[in-house]
User: Fold this.
Amino acid sequence: MKQYDLALFDLDGTLSESGEGILSSVRKVFAETGHPLPDEKTLGTFIGPPMYDSLRRCGFSHEEAENGVEIYKRHFIESGIYQNKTYQGIPEVLKALYEQEVILAVATTKYLPFAERIIKMLDIDQYFKFIGGATSGPERRTKAKVIQYVLEQFPAVSPERTVMIGDTKYDAEGAAQTGVHFIGCLYGYGTKEEMTVFCPSAPYINHPAELMGYIISEGA
Assistant:
């Protein structure tokens, strides 16, 4: 039996191991703009949230952050985008959920054209009914706005029958703000401590294969 009718997947740190490509492009932003490069711990926080927000937290003005996003996009599309691979077990889980007729969609704050290209490049695009990503402007920059946008594409499915699967506090916060369920992925880039602030009673998994037990009941 399906526990959920609609499963929303984050991209970076949930479907895709993408840190190397993201951070190599981020370093080039700091090099080109002359801003001091943050330490490795701070750089790690760039994986997940919108790039604009991360740059602002590192002292970029609004105009500098907007310019930094464009620099990031240029370098990411040239090289960083190719430093992506699915986590072990993800293709098999997606295939199994698809065959159980769970509607699958992507909800990511990654710039939509990049997200679409990565999903296709990873050869998992056939499983997804819809890919929701961020716009270049502020209209759809937060995770909650992306989740809400994806939900609007499936008006027959209620938030109560929807689960967001992600690896950072931004995914957990977005799920809490939109009223959907949440499953936290501890194999990604976030921490359980950060996610439980927003979704304390959610299940947390160490491997993609564990998803099946939470989305499809055994013996169904």
Remarks:
- The CA atoms of residues 111 and 174 lie 17 Å apart.
- The mean pLDDT is 95.
- Strands lie at 6-9, 16-17, 85-86, 103-111, 130-134, 162-166, 181-185, 204-205.
